[in-house]
């Protein structure tokens, strides 16, 4: 259950102000049909969480415990530094003529493939040697992080996302640095 809650919390946090969240808000305003868009978000997030969890399970079979600790620390470092980095503008996919479900599903899958949330899911699955709980936690955390953007797209601009991103990014980076030092046996 620790893997579930850890992945749920971390994947929800790393969505704050992320490109995927901004894409969801832009698509929410463009289509003004939250149910099919949210369905696309749920499917895309589930697929990306499944790929991350199964990949992490596979990695966990072949590397040592110290390497698993370092892999987990590096996934968090990647997430934390990614939150601290400046954000590029989001392509709102204006030329796509596919409707809210497919545009949300395919666009979000492209944004989330290889993203920090997927690495957190993979690293947690590798570390816990159980892919189901990181899958469910990561999927739920991603959906929880993206749902407000679909529902309250216009209000999202007034939220203190920059402060949340910087604070969470700094906290995750510090945690990751401590875990990496521990993985190397330096602390």
């Amino acid at each position: 259950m620790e893997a579930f809650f850890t992945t749920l919390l971390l994947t929800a946090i790393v969505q704050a102000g992320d490109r995927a969240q901004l894409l969801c808000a832009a698509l929410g305003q463009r289509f003004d049909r939250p149910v099919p868009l949210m369905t696309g978000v749920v499917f895309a997030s589930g697929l990306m969480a499944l790929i991350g969890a199964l990949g992490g399970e596979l990695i966990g079979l072949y590397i040592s415990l110290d390497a698993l600790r370092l892999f987990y620390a590096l996934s968090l470092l990647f997430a934390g530094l990614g939150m601290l980095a400046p954000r590029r503008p989001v392509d709102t996919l204006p030329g796509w003529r596919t409707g809210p479900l497919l545009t949300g599903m395919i666009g979000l899958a492209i944004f989330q493939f290889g993203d920090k949330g997927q690495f957190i899911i993979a690293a947690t699955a590798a570390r816990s040697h159980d892919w189901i709980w990181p899958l469910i936690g990561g999927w739920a955390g991603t959906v929880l992080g993206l749902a407000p953007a679909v529902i309250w797209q216009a209000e999202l601009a007034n939220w203190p996302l920059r402060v949340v991103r910087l604070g969470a990014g700094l906290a995750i980076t510090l945690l990751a640095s401590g875990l990496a030092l521990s993985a190397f046996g330096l602390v």
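The mean pLDDT is 90. DSSP finds eight helices and no strands in the chain.
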